[in-house]
Design goal:
Protein name: ATPase
Organism: Kitasatospora xanthocidica
Shape: globular
InterPro entries: NadR/Ttd14_AAA_dom (IPR038727), P-loop_NTPase (IPR027417)
Distance between the termini: 18 Å
Number of helices: 7
CATH superfamily: P-loop containing nucleotide triphosphate hydrolases
Structural class: alpha/beta
Pfam family, one: AAA_28
Helix content: 40-55%
CATH architecture: 3-Layer(aba) Sandwich
Length: about 180
């Protein structure tokens, strides 16, 4: 199975591209950070990302989802973010790189869990705030730079997905990976 990553700055359109790919027949794995935020906010923590334990919670859910995402030979699966994104988030927030995060980064590198080419969904030039996304456009650009540096530092190659209509962005990804594998005749 080939595991490709979608990454980029918050609000760049990763999830929309992921939904398009899913509807086109590809297997997808959801982002973990948004779900950790939603759960902790439901538990009464208004800004869970301010607690350094947030990083390990995201890494744990990412690993659980990655390990649960089994597939057949030739299948292409897309992951919305990875532990490298969590590393970039820790750097951005000024949180320490925990031993758990460091081990996970070493594991995904040693096991070659993800393809070396990462689809980097570039900013459309604005950010729409949500409960989980409370970042200004200017800060999103700083976060974007940190992401690019993190992926390069861990040996990945970012394939830029330029701003534009959703169909064009998704088509750029599909041109790179080919059509989804079909199973069951």
């Amino acid at each position: 199975m080939k595991r490709y990553l979608l990454t980029g700055t918050p609000g760049a359109g990763k999830t929309a591209v992921l939904r398009w790919l899913e509807c086109a027949g590809y297997s997808v794995v959801e982002e973990a950070a948004t779900d950790v935020i939603a759960l902790r906010q439901a538990q009464g923590v208004p800004e869970p990302w301010t607690d350094p334990s947030f990083v390990d919670a995201v890494v744990a859910l990412q690993r659980q989802r990655q390990e649960g995402a089994v597939g057949g030979p030739g299948e292409v699966r897309f992951f919305d973010r990875s532990p490298v994104c969590t590393y970039a988030l820790a750097v951005y927030l000024g949180h320490p790189v925990t031993p758990f995060l460091a081990r996970e980064l070493n594991r995904i590198r040693a096991e070659e869990v993800y393809e070396r080419e990462v689809f980097f969904v570039e900013s459309p030039g604005f950010v729409t705030p949500t409960e989980a996304r409370r970042i200004s456009y200017e800060e999103s650009l700083r976060f974007e730079r940190i992401h690019r540096e993190a992926y390069a530092g861990f040996g990945y190659v970012c394939v830029p997905i330029a701003p534009g209509p959703l169909a064009d962005r998704a088509a750029a990804v599909v041109r790179h990976v080919g059509a989804p594998a079909r199973y069951g005749g």
